[in-house]
# Entry
Amino acid sequence: MRVRLVLAAAALLTAAVAPLAHAGGADGHHTADRPTGSHLRDGHLHDSNLRDSRFTDGHFTDGLFVDAYGTVADDSTVTLSGTYRCLDDSAGPVFVSSTLVQGDRSTGIGGTRAVCDGHLHTWTNSSVAKDPAYVPGAARVEATLMQLSGTGLPLPRFLATEKADVELR
# Structure
């Protein structure tokens, strides 16, 4: 009876928690893509196509993805955003960093401290990027979910990465 209760609770939890499709690299890094048919509402990903890809080896994993567009303000402030999920920050703080690439130019655009509670959260990074400024149009974002851990000089541990084509507006 208890086993059935646990399985039923796991099934309900599985249906309630937003899935992220993951492709694990040989180096242990994960790249996440937004599931087809999903949408963000109230800070949580709701997926109309619930499927078994929400698990990797039977466990939820860390994930990250980038929104399809970013903004460039008149004062050259670039803003990028997306969503992430991480499970555990007990080994050290976790950050979402982003790099914007347009033409032959590449610039780090801010960093956001992540909340690692297993829920999906939004991230937004902004930075003033001048000389030359970024312009509206096609660009590429490279985002990383990274944990700093260790004593003394903290070392980075990459939890998830994503490279995405975006439109700057």
The CA atoms of residues 57 and 151 lie 30 Å apart. The first strand starts at residue 21 and ends at 24.
